[in-house]
Design a protein that fits this description.
This protein has helices at about 95, 120-135, 140-150, 150-160, 165-175, 180-230, 395-400; strands at about 75, 80-85, 245-250, 255-260, 275, 295-300, 320-325, 325-340, 360-370, 375-390. The chain is α+β, with helices and mostly antiparallel strands. Among the domains are: about 5-105, no CATH class; about 220-400, Sortase, Chain: A (Beta Barrel). The protein has an 8-stranded mixed beta barrel. It has a two-stranded antiparallel ribbon with strand order 1-2.
Length: about 400
């Protein structure tokens, strides 16, 4: 659409004679509106100026080689037909076509929000670097992200930005974290069981190991004291006090050397690693130097030195030697009773029942508990004296070999 123009000084539009045109010139005159070659002939061929003079043709700006050159538009002639002369239209200056709202200035995103090039790993690495520059609360988020991924980092950031709890809320959460009575009771019962288990383990260790260590040390000291007294010539009375050692028992097959004390008291004799002589009340037996009788001995099979632990391995003919201050009494194993009730005291009679002996003689009886680690029954071993040898003549063959 052509814009309105101001009127010329030489006449107005429609004024004057019939046939005059705008500007006072007749219609169809050269240079007038509608005349060929003038402005107003119906078409502008691009070669004439507005005042009718020849204008310079428009030369388009050179285009880059990478873009195709626009083809020229065909120009119509003065009478509306196509003209051989062609020219391109002048470029439109957008600044003068119409008013427009200026574009807002481009806002550049901060460096932190700019996504890092590359894949997810590169973005995570860039995020960790940014958090390291920030410092402070972001270090916790970085640690959570390394351990649990993006969810851990978001939780850490949320925890850091969370407002402090009120006093009521803090108390409520403290009560929620407190263990219930059932949990407390179960923990107490578990601790009791653990304590009982530890105590039982300590007791078993004491019974099976420490009692042997202590009893063997006490028995060894008693053996040394007896041998020293005998070597010094100190005489012992014929009657001995309960718990007093007076002889040594040798079982070569079992490699046993243990002191013999008067009585069968657990505290004074048996628990001290020694062998006790039945010498009290109805269970009193003869001494080894008696002309006839049964020399009865008792000892532990387990714990407290366990001197009779392996007497069940003795076989008929194995020697058993009793050494006193003056003599050696040599017995040979005769028979064994594997199991008998503790109340069977007939095994200690001068002629013990079940031993196979038929008449009076000089016998020895060894008694201990069975099965092992119990005291339900008794194990009995009998022997018969085959030699009495004074100490002045030296040791018997049973101890030399």
């Amino acid at each position: 659409m052509t814009a309105l123009r101001p009127e010329r000084e030489s006449g107005a539009y429609g004024a004057g004679d019939q046939g005059t045109s705008y500007g006072g010139q007749p219609y169809g005159a050269p240079g007038a509106y509608g005349a060929p070659g003038s402005y107003g002939d119906g078409w502008y061929d691009g070669t004439q100026a507005y005042d009718g003079t020849q204008a310079q043709p428009y030369v388009p700006a050179p285009q880059p080689e990478s873009y195709p050159q626009p083809e020229p538009y065909p120009q119509p002639d003065a009478y509306g037909g196509a003209s051989d002369a062609t020219a391109t239209l002048p470029p439109v200056d957008e600044e003068t076509v119409a008013l427009r709202i200026p574009e807002p200035p481009k806002r550049t995103a901060p460096a932190e929000a700019t996504p890092a090039p590359g894949g997810r790993a590169a973005r995570r690495k860039a995020a960790r670097k940014r958090q390291g520059r920030r410092g402070g609360s972001h270090k916790a988020a970085e640690g959570h992200e390394a351990a649990g991924g993006r969810e851990g980092a978001s939780e850490a950031a949320e925890e850091a930005s969370r407002a402090p709890l009120s006093r009521v809320e803090a108390r409520r959460r403290a009560r929620a974290r407190k263990a219930s009575p059932a949990v407390v009771a179960s923990r107490a019962i578990g601790e009791v069981f653990i304590t009982c288990g530890v105590l039982m383990l300590l007791f078993v260790t004491y019974q099976l190991w420490w009692t042997n260590v202590r009893a063997q040390a006490q028995a060894g000291k008693e053996v040394s004291d007896l041998q020293k007294d005998w070597a010094d010539g100190k005489r012992q009375p014929g009657a001995f006090e309960p718990g007093q050692g007076f002889a040594l028992l040798h079982i070569p097959r079992l490699d046993v050397v243990v002191p013999i004390a008067e009585g069968i008291s657990s505290k004074k004799v048996l628990d001290r690693g020694m062998v006790g002589h039945y010498a009290e009340g109805a269970l009193k037996t003869a001494m080894p130097d008696a002309k006839t009788g049964n020399f009865g001995l008792a000892g532990h099979r387990n714990t407290h030195g366990e001197p009779f632990r392996y007497i069940n391995r003795l076989e008929p003919g194995d020697p058993i030697v009793v050494e006193t201050q003056d003599s050696y009494f040599v017995y040979k194993t005769a028979s064994m009773l594997p199991v008998t009730p503790p109340s069977n005291v007939s095994v200690l009679e001068p002629v013990p029942k079940g031993s196979g002996f038929t008449g009076p003689g000089r016998y020895i009886t060894l008694t201990t508990c069975t099965p092992e680690f119990t005291s339900k029954y008794r194990l009995i071993v009998w022997g018969k004296m085959v030699e009495e040898r004074p100490r002045s003549k030296g040791k018997p063959d049973a101890l030399v070999s």
